Every structure is written in C-alpha cells, then in structure tokens.
Prior knowledge:
Elements lengths: L56 H4 L14 E4 L11 E2 L1 H7 L9 E4 L9 E4 L1 E2 L1 H9 L3 E4 L1
Parallel strand pairs: 1-3, 2-4, 3-5, 4-6
Amino acid sequence: MQLNTIKPAIGSTKNRKRIGRGIGSGHGKTATKGHKGQKARSGGSVKPGFEGGQMPMHRRLPKRGFTPLTKKVYALVNLCQLEIFEAGSVVDAEALQKSGLINEICDGIKVLATGDLTRALTIKAHKFSASAREKITAAGGTVEEI
C-alpha cells in the first residue's frame, strides 16, 4: 500500500449538490428554491419561532416564576439508607459516593429522618433535619456539620 494509491471506501463519499449551474444539472434556473416567495429571495428566510405573523407561542404563554441565582441543591440521604454501613464507621461524602447512595455532591448533603437508624455512626454532612439529629444521637451516633 502506498499513500498515493489510497482511496476512500466505495459509497463513503458523495459529490456536493452544485445548484444554479445550468439547466443540464437538474438544479439550474431557480436553484432548488421554487418560484417566488420570501424563501426564494436573496437573504430571505424566517427566524426561528416565526409563525407567519401570528402571535408566536413563546409570547402567547404567560411568564411564570424565576430561577434564583443563590438556590442550593442538596443530595438527599435518608437514615434507613445508612443501615448499610458498619457500626462505628464514619459516613462522609466520599463514603456515600462509594456506596452509591449519592451520584454527585451538588451543593452539599442533607440527611433526612425517614426510617430508623440502629447503629452508632459518625455522620458528616452539610445539613440535617431536626428529627434526623435526634434519631442519630438516640442510636448512639454523632452528628458533624461540614
């Protein structure tokens, strides 16, 4: 094989459509634009969302709400999910990711009180619900806010 003999595979390349290059090409005269109208004119096209003068959808629908720039999204973990850890172990963001309980730390981790905790664990998170704190300390564990 030599570099000057390499060709693309058969059928993998196509000639571009040469429009407006004479009647014999099959794409002459109107150059595939049809007869007259806005889209046949030079520079003539409608912008995205244009509905022919009718009030466009994005202006017909009411505006609603807003997205606050300071909103924080927490990864939620329930107490019943923490039963997979051994007694006395430290449960932090890294341990939760390894166990698959959270995919990624958004703006932090929040522990909620759904279910019961039977083991004494040291739990490190950004936020705890009040009832989750009580249940963790009742089980003999400790709560550490990061």
